[in-house]
Amino acid sequence: MISRDRDTAGRARNDRPRDRLGRPLPPGSAGVARIPDDLELGPQQTLTFAQQLLDDGLAFNAHEVLEAAWKNGPVAERMLWQGLAQYAVGLTHIQRGNAKGAGTLLRRASERLGSYPANAQQHDVDRAGLIAHARELLDALDAGDDITEERLRTRLCREPT
Question: What is the rounded distance in angstroms from the CA atom of residue 38 to the CA atom of residue 65?
Answer without folding.
Answer: 10
